[in-house]
Structures are given as C-alpha cells and as structure tokens.
Write a structure and sequence with these properties.
By secondary structure, the protein is of the alpha/beta class. It has helices spanning 7-23, 27-34, 82-99, 119-133, 152-166, 187-205, 222-233, 256-266, 302-307, 323-331, 341-344, 347-361, 367-392, 396-415; strands at 38-47, 53-62, 70-77, 104-111, 142-146, 214-218, 237-243, 246-249, 277-278, 290-293, 312-314, 337-339. It has 2 domains: 7-171, Rossmann fold (3-Layer(aba) Sandwich); 189-344, 3-Layer(aba) Sandwich (Rossmann fold). It is built from 14 helices and 12 strands. The longest helix has 26 residues, at 367-392.
Length: 419
Amino acid sequence: MTVYSGPVFDMAVNQFGVIANHLEIPMDERGRILMPKRAITVSCPIHRDDGTVAVFEGYRVQHHLTLGPTKGGTRFAPSVDIGEVAALAIWMSWKCALVGLPYGGAKGGVNVDLSTISKRELEALSRRYMQEMIPFVGPHTDVMAPDMGTNEQVMAWFMDTYSMYQGQTVTEIVTGKPVSSGGTLGRREATGRGVAYLARRVLKELSINPGSATAVIQGFGNVGSYAALELHQYGLKIIAVGDHTGALHDPAGLDIPALMRHAGTHGSIAGFSNQLAFDPEAILTLPCDVLVPAAMERVIDAKVAENLKCRVLAEGANGPTTPEADLVLEKRQGEVFVIPDILCNSGGVVVSYFEWVQDLQQLFWEEEEVTRREYAILDRAFDTMLQRAKADNIPHRTAAMAIGVEKVRAAKNTRGLFP
C-alpha cells in the first residue's frame, strides 16, 4: 500500500527496478533507496479577484537527505499529483548524484490551470504555497527552484515570503531567482544550454558537422527555447518546433531569435506563422540529426521510438521516454544516440547549485565563470556515463542511473540506519 500512484510514478519504479537488478541490490535494501523520505500535501486557499475563495492542492516530496539538503523544482500545472511529484523527486536524486552535487532530490507543485488565474491570484497562490511549506523547507533542508508553470518571479515571491517569516532576507532558500534578488547570471539559460552543449558533443562523437545538421524541438518553454537558440548559434538548422498550442515546420530552418521574441511576448508559438503550421504529433518522427523532447513526461512510447528518425535523442524534459520505448531504443543503439534526461537536462540543477553556493557566500561570479563550470561538470558526467556504458555494454540510461543509484546507496550504507 502506498500513497504514490499513476503512470509517472510507476515508470520511476520500473526504471529503478531495472537498475537495482543490474547492480544486484538485495531486495531488503531497495525500499530504503527508492521510497521518498517525506511527502507533504497542503491546501492553498486564496482570495479570487471576484471576492470568492478558491482552494488549490499543493505537494512537496523530499526523496532523501543523505548527501545534503534536497533540491528540486516546483511546477504549477493541472497534471500535478503526488505520484508525479514523487517520481520527479526520485529522478532528481539520481541526477544530483550523477553530476556530483551534495543534494538529494525533491519536487513540488500545485494542481492549477494557470490560464484560469490572474497575476495577482498567481502571487497569492505562490505566497500561500510557500507559507504552507515553511515548516518543511530551509537552505539546509530543501531548496526550491522553478519548473513548468513557474519562473523567476514566482521564485522571488517564494523567497520574500520565507524571508518575511524569518525576519531577514534569506536568498539561499530558492534558486532560479532574478539576478536583482540574489539570482545568478546564466541560470535562466542553464538547462537549455546544457542540452545543446551535450548534443553538440555527441555530434562531434558521431563526426556530424553542426553546420550541416538539423534539429527538432518539442516544447518551447524555458528549456526548449534556449536549447533551440544555442543549437541555432552552433550552426544547426531548427526545422521544427512544437508546444502546447501547435507546431511549426520549415525545412529551410526557422528564425529562432524571432520565434523566441514572439513566444516571449505572446506566451506561446501560436500566431507566429500560419504558413508553417504542422501536425504537433508528427514532429517527433521527422528526419533530423538532433531531437529534443523538452515538454512533458512519456511522450516517446514504443511506437514513437520505432519511428524515430533522429541520430541524437537529447532529453530536455524529465522522463520523456517510457520503459517500453527504452527496450526499442536498446535495439537501435547504433542508430539513435540517447542522452538520458538525468544527464541531458542537469545543467539547470548544476547552475542552481552555483546560485545556492554564491548566496551562502555572498560572493557572485561572472556569467563566463558560471557557464565554464557548468560545461566542465557536464563533460565529466558525460565521460563517466560513456565509459560505464561501454565497459558494461549497457544502454546510456542504465549507465547514468546506475552511477546515481550507486552513489546514493553507498552514502546510505556508510551513514547507517538511525536509530
């Protein structure tokens, strides 16, 4: 019996089972490594603009605190439930361990359709959610960050709410803040930059010239848009982009800077061009060199995996590929080079770590230093994953997750079980 359920949590459990079997972890150790330490469910009542009161349900799951505080984003979306949040917290644990950060994984969220609330209501909901979380979070307990549906402004409201409660400014309680409020240069672009950087590394491994390569981006939020911009600047043609409103396709290459300006103004790619409109479900299987799924979980199932026509699958989203699709991709290892999500999109948490460190020290770095350090950590993790995959003759996802799970397991075994 467990409070966690749903397809996303089942997927995280399935993936862990594969890794635990590969590592031959005894059955009596598995529950302690997999199951979250703590899960919080809260009610978030707010005053609506019309004078009524509405109540939204919020969640926070902290997977483990063995290596340090937990770290993870907070998403505001109608899909949010406790199972999804728990799965994302588990994946964040493996991700932090893989890239060598002193964190456990966490995730939070509020079940809300943002199109139904005003900016004032969003501020009220953000502040109320953080107010409810204050007993359970802190700079050395759990550090929040943005995710789907949240941004720098929401993080500033979180930080201000926590600081008012403490009676002093506590910038290190969240990351992904505006630079003017203790944020770091390069955080907004960090995840997308990391995705593009690793994709370019793989193109080099495959002897593909970026100047003659093409890319498709599914999802055009923070991660997808900056991944598209970086790949565009590397010389790739971005031939298709999709988001929740539709898709655009141009074999000659889309004008990514113009598309980013449009999305920044209008909130989506809708209305950018009627002539370039395309079936959003079909963009995942377009022929291209780099495919970046940067939207929701579970978009690449077994059928899609069989029909992928990319050379590099750079997973910008968390959990975009189902376990059934992984079995298909394992058979296609020579055709599709997978950069698994826990490595590919880890640039965001890496630079969030830099922001936390800078806030604690009150000593801030130039953007060039932030980016240089981010790429150095990504390079190290990529090389480690590749060496493990080749040495054990296993898929990249298995190698990456095995490294993360091993580190968490070793830390738990070293510290022992209290009491």
